[in-house]
């Protein structure tokens, strides 16, 4: 074996024999790599979200003045969705191909824990951005994927899912990125935007526990208690102040 062959062999070993798989599957998240993807779905594994998620975006983006399109085709103003109540607005990435598993998981968790929000006097609205009106048909496929992540796939979606046609709301909020960055907003009962969280990558979203804690902050002290803990099934009674810790505690035996 001559010296040239030895050099080729050593070079192959040093470069991993041509293996191009990244050592860290999350290394490219948020770089926009791939075909229209805000980060990569590669190696997502168990999907979890952020428990410590303080507001990190502008509260002056004009969310409450925006309108989106309901499934009936009518325009719905954010300010009119839950008058006198706290409103949690979740903006998904939109009609991505393939369907974003992080978005589906996030919405499934909100459905599973909807009663916990209702007991705090809060409502939820989900925004699904689309590039053109013709993309509206993709919403049903997204919701079908959401239901596969529920214990009961026949469970109805208990809150409105609105279309952001041509990304008008996304652009107003300054969150466009393959179609949209994942974003969550909380509007208090007086109609003021109190919380805004925009993810730095596809997995960067507040958990249900974090959102319930933030909802509790927008309520009067005497009503900011929660009678349920976050669970994958039905919330259980536990009348304690809203914090990320108490939401995960086991309720007392009856």
Structure description:
This protein is α/β, with parallel strands linked by helices and 254 residues long. It has a domain at 54-222: Glutaredoxin. The protein contains 6 helices and 9 strands; from the N terminus they run αβββααβαβαββαββ. The chain has a 5-stranded mixed beta sheet. Strands 1-2 form a two-stranded antiparallel sheet. Strands 8-9 form a two-stranded antiparallel ribbon. Helix 2 (101-112) packs across helix 4 (138-147). The longest helix is centred in the N-terminal third of the chain and has 12 residues, at 3-14. The radius of gyration is 21 Å and the shape is globular. Residues 5-36, 224-229 and 231-254 have low confidence and may be disordered.
Short description:
The chain has 254 residues and is α/β, with parallel strands linked by helices.
Q: Which helices and strands occur, and which strands form pairs?
A:
Layout: H1 3-14, E1 67-69, E2 75-77, E3 86-91, H2 101-112, H3 114-119, E4 122-130, H4 138-147, E5 161-165, H5 168-173, E6 183-187, E7 193-198, H6 208-217, E8 225-226, E9 240-241
Parallel strand pairs: 3-4, 4-5
Antiparallel strand pairs: 1-2, 3-6, 6-7, 8-9
Helix pairs in contact: 2-4
Name the CATH superfamily classification of the domain at 54-222: Glutaredoxin
Briefly note the CATH topology name of the domain at 54-222: Glutaredoxin
SSE order: HEEEHHEHEHEEHEE
User: Approximately how much helix is present in the residues?
Assistant: 10-25%
- Give the amount of beta strand, in percent: 15-25%
* CATH class group of the domain at 54-222: Alpha Beta
Q: Describe the biggest sheet?
A: 5 strands, mixed
User: Can you list the strand order of the major beta sheet?
Assistant: 5-4-3-6-7
Overall strand count: 9
| CATH architecture annotation name of the domain at 54-222 | 3-Layer(aba) Sandwich
